[in-house]
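Researcher: Quick sanity check before group meeting.
Model: Go ahead. Protein one:
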Amino acid sequence: MGKTLYKHRTEARSTGALFESTRFVPLPLDTVTAFFAEPSNLERLMPRWLRFRLVEAPAEMGKGSLLRYRAAPLGLPVTWVAQIAVWEPPLLFADVQRRGPYRAWEHTHWFSAVAGGTEIRDRVRYRLRGGPLAPLVDRLGHRALLQRLFDYRMERLSALLGNEPA
């Protein structure tokens, strides 16, 4: 698969939690950002056990775009509506949850051309539902789940795009 860097950091805060991930993929910036600009590709980056499906999306992404997904983690059906809050291709975009499983979810994606490929940085600020038990749920499994999902996404990205040279 080539040189792939995975670096994750998660921390709890009084206002929720922060998950950060930085990865290198040996693919050109324009290929990577074009892939992420296509809403249906998110479904292709999710593991099958999540049963993640795109229900509704605009023909073209932009600031204010709404995306509606359905998932069934652990067999529990969930509807997720995300809105693109920032759209500045090819450098970054951010989505926020308008309806879904989290009390709050803000995900910023940054893309940078680097020697031999593209660096992808993600920052997710989130708050779990569950009241006083939410921090415990986060520590006991949710953080590890996020790390697994982001690792899987990068493996799939490289597989889907064929690791073409940068």
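Researcher: Fine. The other one?
Model: Protein two, sequence then structure:
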Amino acid sequence: MITKIDIPPDNRHEYIGLSTDIPKPDYAGVNSLFLELDTRDIYYFDGSDWQQVPDSGGGGGGGSGGNVPSGGTTGQLLAKASGTNYDTTWVNQFGFNTATITLTAANWSSSLIDVTCSGMTSTAKVWVSPAATDSDMSNYASAQIYCSAQATDTLTFKCIGTTPTSNIDVEVIWA
């Protein structure tokens, strides 16, 4: 799973998930995205249910499949060119900062934990995911952890499930 942190006014969190067997969360913010790695299906949350994005599965690799225009160069990303459906263009990607942070089991207090993320601003767009180990992903999912607040150099995580009894490594990306 990857959690995108952008606290909407209704305090529900935008959520970007990656999963082959972890269920889609029911606490996601409207228009949150979920990618199923095994099927490559993309879903968005409409506020009450997850809806599959049309033509999102399988494919990959461009060609005449899907709605991917020809062109682009290595490292470029496909982006919306206007508000019109399927109007896309290739754009250069921008830089990201990354860090691996340990959510230490002994530091959870009232289902909250603050961690340092040096160099992050309070207005940065932040994405969080458990490290790619079975135990980190499983513990992260069972604890139902999400980032509840962000400040300069600090992220606050909240656990709405079972408080973790072991450390959990998370990957943080911000721009």
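Researcher: One line on it for the slide.
Model: Residues 1-9, 59-65 have pLDDT under 50 and may be disordered.
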